[in-house]
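Listing S7. Sequence submitted for prediction.
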Amino acid sequence: MSRLGRTGILTVVTSVLVAAIAATLLAVSPAGEDDAVAAARAALGDDVGRGTARTIAQQKWGEGRLVVTRYSDRKGDRRLAIAFAIDSGRGWRATGTSERAALDDVGVGSLLVSSSQGGAGQPSWTAAFGEAMDPRIRAVEMTWSDTTTTAAGLRGPAYLVVRRGVDTAKLARYLAEDGSEVAKVPVGPSAASPGPSPTPAPASSPSPPGAPASPSQGTPAPV
């Protein structure tokens, strides 16, 4: 057999082997989800009551999305979780989920602070998220340890306040439509448990009810 013929056979064999390896990798590596919302829900695992998961907030971040999910666990307790999801090329995958908070962990609703050092397609971030149950509240402003502030409006009762970089939250201010303060909640290690009641702004309107536990600050656990 000529050298040219042997080279042709080797090329064909190599191509077949490459195709076989690629097919094997596709078979053992399952496809991701159809979108970021589905990926975030899949990351919650089995401790989710059937039909209870609902996306309440999401935001584009880097090459993916941050997604906040509200759900009830198998005990019936209502909880929140956040995940960063990105399209891996074979579907969306959540690269991490946060510690989860009960919905009544501060007197005006719920508040959880989570952060991530980031990774491929994911700039580092710190996020405060939850639900505000006082109908006067229209926005939430977070103050961080570096004294900067970040604010975001509500989507229904839900909010998601995100800043670039990893930092510690110090104060959450819940604001009315005109920018006046409805309540403020200290956050972080200085807010020892049991946490302080939300401090209402001076106004004739009633103070937010309830004596909250201190808000949680969690760090996403890599999947």
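Caption to Listing S7: primary sequence and predicted structure tokens for the chain studied. Residues 6-29, 191-197, 201-214, 219-223 have pLDDT under 50 and may be disordered. Residues 23 and 178 are 59 Å apart (CA to CA).
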